[in-house]
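Closing statement on the LLP sub-project.
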Amino acid sequence: MAFNYEERFLYMEDVSIREISKKVPTPFFCYSKRALKENFDKFKKVFPKATICYAIKANSNIAVIKTLAACGAGADVVSGGELFLALKCGIPGSKIVYSGVGKTEKDISLAIQNEIKQINIESAEELEAVNQTAIRLCTRANIAIRINPEVDAHSHDKITTARVTDKFGILWPDALELYKKASNMSGVRIKGIAVHIGSQILDLKPFEETFKKLVKMVKELEKNDIVIENIDIGGGLGVVYKYKEDKPVRTEAFAKLVDKYLAPLKKHIIMEPGRKIVANAGILVSSVLYNKKSGRKDFLIIDAGMNDFMRPALYSAWHEILPVRDWNNRVMKKYDVVGPICESGDTFAKSRELPQLEHGELVAIMGAGAYGSSMGSTYNFRPLTAEVLVDGAKYKVVRKRQSYEDMIASQLDLLK
Ligand code: LLP
């Protein structure tokens, strides 16, 4: 376990969160290097031959990416910026896959010039743009077609991606035609097929449905003399956010399913896990600013806001909130835990039972390693949050909190 109470205080690995907070002002994200490695190694162990492309969008801190790259991770990127970052972190193009419905010509050029493993095509017009760009660069682009298998992953509405009405991929009955078109293009090299059906999926069924359709599709392609090398099965595996309630799919069970359906096709498997690797390797540490009694409500106002961590505000996501000093013998209270942002949605939890917490006490918002800092903003002109990486008994600030000066640096000329 990366987290534990020792001597009445919360520890990450062998470092006391309270000790970190004496040096690093809250709020800050804190990640366990050991947990990152263990989570990645689990994938490596159950998929020894696959290319595991860590989905950088889940957490784009350089220390996190480099830790995973050192374990052998490739990268799944969805923008020119993420592609640039992956390359800067030393991930070779041969281990990078690039999805996303709105790739610009500049992003496409960068991908082609770095000979990435595959550009996952999401529309007919994009295929044309990739073809033209490659021809202009006197080369061929490695491509896969991301199909939309029309499967409802039954996750949150905003993070489900493969219903017939979603914007992602090519509806699977239309895919064959697009592959045929691609096979006649001089600027592309067909490498694979890709899917990604959503995120925080807690059930194997939607994956099973998807794999069945993938098998059909690959056979159909082969009948048409279109032979692919790679099957990119995307990310999406869910994690525990609500202790004792969420029952996520085990990576091993997922691997069995891949084995059952896809192994007989004898293709190279690519996967794009994000959340499963980083979510529970990270927390957001925040201090209590005020207790506010308002009518019948008890608000606990903390110094982290929805700009630092927007999952609760955006998806009504549940995250455990733990006091950094343990629960023993403390008076319990039901709090609405809220941040300082001027929006009522800036709420981390409603009616949450917690020990009574005083000004200056620390809380840890759990499961904040994925889609936390990477979705952070400067809303209300609040600086981007600091990030800390714990490694055994040591820790390091791996992203400094922005200063106000940093925040206005790109507009300084307007103040002259
Ligand atoms: N591959 C593609 C093409 C994706 O779009 C995503 C996530 C992943 C892989 C990684 O999925 P994962 O293994 O992390 O589930 N902000 C939301 C999640 C959005 C996911 C977007 N795509 C949240 O906080 O729940």
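The chain is about 30% helix and 25% strand. With this model delivered, the sub-project is considered complete and its resources will be redirected to Aim 3.
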